[in-house]
Sequence to fold (435 residues):
Amino acid sequence: MPSGFFDGIEQIQFEGADSKNPLAFRHYNPDEIIMGKRMEDHLRFAVAWWHSFAWEGGDPFGGPTFERPWYPQDDMGRARLKADIAFELFDLLGQPFFCWHDADIRPEQGNFADNLRTLEEITDYIGEKMQASGTKLLWGTANMFSHRRWMAGASTNPDPEVFAFAAATVKSCMDATHKLGGENYVLWGGREGYETLLNTDLKAELDHMGRFLNMVVEYKHKIGFKGTILVEPKPQEPSKHQYDYDAATCIGFLRKYGLEGEVKLNLEQGHAILAGHSFEHEIAVAAAEGMLGSIDMNRNDYQSGWDTDQFPNNTPEVALAYYYILKAGGFTTGGTNFDAKVRRQSIDAEDLVAAHVGGMDICARGLKAAAAMIDDGGLEDALSERYSGWSTPDAASMLDSSLEEISARVLRENTNPEPQSGRQEILENYVNRFM
Ligand code: XUL
Ligand code: CO
Fold:
């Protein structure tokens, strides 16, 4: 028996670019073949349990605005109802995956034993629903930032008992993810950072975080979890300074603690913007190191400077992100998780559906534009042309020589390179042809 929450909303269909139906896909056509692969298998969409079902519509100036039948979220019966309604949304959208934090799916009981018991109970319940619907788990993660115990961090907390609580919590979430066949396990260090250096032993905290992540990898192998461990960079918010600042910082951290072959990155559009980067920059940095894992798709409000987690609605931005993902070979275990929430005034069930429909459509449109650019090859040709000087044997051998040898040659040949145009506007105009 359906809950009635989505009454009046039919399963979303692909109706093509000319459709005027606000609850239809105009571009997301799961079976359409793009570069030899089904669109659904390229994009690997996931719905985020936290934004769609756990967030109640509050902001710093006011409390909840949403009224949902599964509130208050402090009881197992309502946690099960929330799961029922989540799978009703999945059935309407037909996206292949979802993601959760432990605290999204089970009530917070205030102690570890009860949190573990309720997590195990809801894991089994969700497992049955997954069997019935075919929707899969892209990743699970632990919420180690909301409850007050985490206020000074989880693995970086000055109190070893909080480190221990974090270790136990992550173990329970990895077990649940493994049980549900999750394809990745994510760690986002929301409070793994600091508010003020005056009370922070930065080196000790980094060492604890490095050891913690090694324990996660050791446990992954111990239980035979075949998914990918992902860390998610973000420069600040909630901490003033977060250790996983951006992709480059995370890559340096992973190398320092010997994890470069074990852990990849989950990159989020809004976090890239907060770090002063474009999304495609973060994707390209991770891809260059073979560490591109998965993405959290959203956008920030560009005026506010906050992590507003809005649904994506800008095709050129999304297209460039997928361009660099396709160039890197596309997703393996990763996918496109909508780490995005409807606005505080969007209180209807229809808003929740429409937000995902629009987000999926924008991503599909971006993917098609990205694939068309790859197919056309214009950007790749321009790159080859720009770097063609490096394909000569003389240029290549320069990298194996020394400053003295190079300097002697520059003097001998009296070289004086002629500047070349970077052709930025021409390339930007080229990209716009595909939007
Ligand atoms: C917060 C954020 C998280 C992570 C998972 O900014 O992005 O939702 O994706 O903990
Ligand atoms: Co995220």
